Amino acid sequence: MKKTVKKLMVTLALALMVTTFCGSGVQAKQKSQKLKVDNIYADYNKYVKGRCNLKKYRLVIKQGSKVLHNKTHYRKSFSVKIGTRNQGDKITVKIKKSRKKYASVTKQVKRTLWWQKDGYKSEKAVVKAYKTNDRKITVHCKAGYRLNVDITGNNGKNQKENNIQKTKTINVASGVDSIKKVTLTLYNNRKKISSNGITPDDAQSDNGKGNKPGVKKDNTKKPTQDVDWREDNIDRFLGQIEKSDTYRGTAYKLNDYTIYRECDSYQYGFITSPYWSLVDWYNEREYKELLAEMQRIVEVTHIKDDMIDEEKAYRLGRYLAKNIDYYLPGHEQHLYGTLFNKKTVCGGYSKTYAVLCRYVGIECDYVLADKIGNHAWNLIKLGDYWYVVDITDAAVGRNGKGITYSFFMGYDYIDDSLINHLDKDYWTDEYISTHPIDTINHYQRCKKEGITGQSFTDDELYNLPE
């Protein structure tokens, strides 16, 4: 009995050692796979593709000092269009988590492979240019497909090579005379898609131009792609979700300021602008805490339903300017940290103000001038026009009358250096046409058009009771 127990204990100990060893190996492997980026080939790849092991992260793509992409992502895999690049260019892909560097990979753009050149890259399977007397044939098959090759000689002999994936060089058998044609037959799993016989005249150029070098036609019926996952406009994206048989009900607006999506965490997103990439996401607990705090702010600022929009918007902005400190070292730029830590920078002020305005029924956008400008403010709709509000400036002047000077201003209030570096989303024809920014402030507009009871002078705003 003792021997049996001893053997059992030894066996368990060995099993534990193996588990520990293997476990540490798995952890090490996972750690090394924080970020994986696919190879980039010159004049071929227009997208940087890869995978990160986070569900929410900031993805930054740079070439030297030039920023090609800088946005928050919510899927582990990513595909970002950067256009074609030249051989030798270095593309750096960085992942940031909570504004801190998490992982970084630099890829040098590789030389274009033969099957990636213009005459070849549109084909599902190709044969490299060859001559009738060549004794080697090189073929390539795109990922996800399988290729069978039949080499026919002028003497009627055949040579078959089956189940080829990716690239393979085939030595022509001695029994096959000079090559008459090479037949490529393409399969998707076990299903034959199409077949094409390529003669030396069809594949006569090394760069593929002017060739008919392969199999292009794919007769397999593919599922309809009814959702464009790259669409950044919230209303269009959610419209596609609603029409999709596959994804209907997985994401939708709860109200004018919140989106709900089905996922393990960060299900609730506060809308700060028309763009999905700028939604501020939270879990259910944080979302409920923020709703309660927003309602508290509405109550302490004494906002009533019968107030004009300008007064509601000013009371909300005044609260933020007077109660949230501008604190550069923290770089807090999200609603939760802004409202509960009571400190932020321009990004936190403007995102929070956008959501608070939307919460009381006023259209308001967070606007970003990135790169050199590196500042954020708001556009708010009053009447037929949009006006500039800069809560950061209001916070700087919060102890005097200057607090009112950055509310409901015209286009000229924005510095030219910031206008020139607006995020590209705010330069689109669609955004410009739907957000006409007034050339004068709101008070002047109302006075010019004889509209009464809808605006205040600076003195009247300053003297509004808190």
UniProtKB/TrEMBL annotation:
Would the keyword Cytoplasm be found if you checked this record's keyword annotation? no
Check the UniProt entry and state the signal peptide residues, or none. Answer: 1-28
List residues of the Transglutaminase-like domain: 338-393
Cross-referenced InterPro entries, in alphabetical order? Answer: Papain-like_cys_pep_sf, Transglutaminase-like
* Chain intervals for the UniProt region annotation (Disordered): 195-226
Q: Which keywords accompany this UniProt record?
A: Signal
Stretches with biased composition (Basic and acidic residues): 215-226
- A Pfam family cross-referenced in the UniProt record is Transglut_core
Q: What is the official name of this protein in its record?
A: Transglutaminase-like domain-containing protein
